[in-house]
Amino acid sequence: MGNSYIGILVDGLVYSGIKRGYSYYERVAFYEEAGKRFDLMPCFFRLGDVSPDSEWIQALVKETNGRYKLRTIPIPSVIHNRGLFFTKQAKVKLLNLQNAGFTIFNSWNRYSKMTVHEILIQNEELRPHLPETKRASIENLKEMMEKHTELIIKPNSGSLGGGVMMVERTDNEVWTVNHNQNKEFFSSELPGILRKRAANRYYLIQQRIPLAKYQGSPFDLRVSVQKNGSGEWQVTGIVGKVAKLGSYVTNVAKGGTCNSLRELVDGSPGLDYDNVYKNIEDFSIKAVKELVIQFPSLADVGLDIGITEDGFPMFIECNGRDLRITFGKAKMLDVWKATYTTPISYARYLIDLKTEQE
Ligand SMILES: Nc1ncnc2c1ncn2[C@@H]1O[C@H](COP(=O)(O)OP(=O)(O)OP(=O)(O)O)[C@@H](O)[C@H]1O
Ligand SMILES: [Mg+2]
Asked: Is 249 close to ligand 1, i.e. is its CB under 6 Å away?
């Protein structure tokens, strides 16, 4: 044991915020609290602060006066990635660090929705929990319209609920396409906006899950799935996201509100809390165990999972860097903190493992 650093790799925005005492979506105090518990000192830096030939780094470390100051320290042997990187160059840099013996967990955290779907669909037990998903094309749209009465068309990666369209059959001949606040009816001829989206290869066409509703609005869940202090996967918490009235997307960025799962389940007479929780937990753990085979550094994800009216979990997406704020918005302080503490406990586990092997 002994006090050592845990590296927290952050984006430029969060980094400059920490210097000024405001860290945007990250809760620095939660890292500090977790650090105290596991005898680890959090230090914050950006990928740009790592230079290829040096084992030293300048990182923000808390001084006794409570302020964060730059200190030159050895690169921490275990690094928790909380940044999002887009370039090939960043990917190479992360790989080089790993090859040099540094453990970076959640190192690469951007996965296309189609890639994730293709991995999960291989597993027979997971298959019933996956909505049918196809790459966008006019041909696939027509095929999906024959099979399903409700469809979602969404970007293959990163949208925060933007650009998500819903297509639904209102009666035998008539369909509607919902986009933002607009609704357009059509029958045989596809409206221009739908034709354009369906022909865009950066989009997916997906069977719409008939999401359970809370006070008339569909909801889904954010499930924090993390590796813990024993190196095992656990569900740290589940929180509900309820769509704004009249909307079909639950994203907070699109006016969704956050409620505890308990509140949502209590509002649905047919659902039993323990049962729903257990089913989501089982599914989530199986899903991450499948994903980690392909992405070995995976240790902390936020799954979006819908439930049907009878509580059956259906997979929506896997967020590789969960901002965790949904737990804060639902006022679930203990769980929110736990989403920070658990990765730090995992870091402690990794550091101890490394020390044993030395
Ligand atoms: N197949 C589906 N059935 C029902 N609702 C869906 C489906 N796909 C998406 N949604 C709704 O749209 C929301 C946004 O979709 P999703 O979570 O897949 O992407 P996103 O949040 O926009 O992407 P990212 O997290 O990469 O920014 C979901 O939270 C859910 O409310
Ligand atoms: Mg989402």
From this structure: yes
Query: How far apart are the CA of 304 and the centre of ligand 2, in A?
Result: 6
131 touches ligand 1 (CB under 6 Å): yes
Q: Which domain holds residue 26?
A: 4-109
Residues 79 and 63 placed together within one structural domain of the fold: yes
- Structure token digits, residue 45: 């830096």
Q: For residue 126, is it within any domain?
A: no
**pLDDT one-digit tens code per residue, 195-209:** 999 999 999 999 999
210 lines ligand 1 (CB under 6 A): no
Query: What is the rounded (10 degree) CA torsion for 347, 21, 48, 348?
Result: -10
Nearby residues of 53 by Cβ (< 8 Å), 6 or more positions away: none
Nearest ligand to the CA atom of 323: 1
8 A C-beta contact, residue 156 and residue 112: yes
Cβ of 225 below 6 Å from ligand 1: no
Q: How far apart are CA 54 and CA 10, in angstroms?
A: 19
Residue with the two structure tokens 């933007």: 162
Instruction: Round to whole Å and give the CA distance between 345 and 30.
Output: 13
Domains of the chain: total: 3
Which is it for the CA torsion 348, 323, 329, 150, positive or negative?
A: negative
53-89: pLDDT as tens digits: 899 999 999 999 999 999 999 999 999 999 999 899 9
Tell me the DSSP string of 95-115.
HHHHHTT-EEET-S----HHH
Task: Establish whether residue 205 lines the binding site of ligand 1, counting it when its CB lies within 6 angstroms of any ligand atom.
Answer: no
Query: What is the position in ligand 1's atom list of the atom closest to the CA of 133?
Result: 1
DSSP-based three-state secondary structure for 154: strand
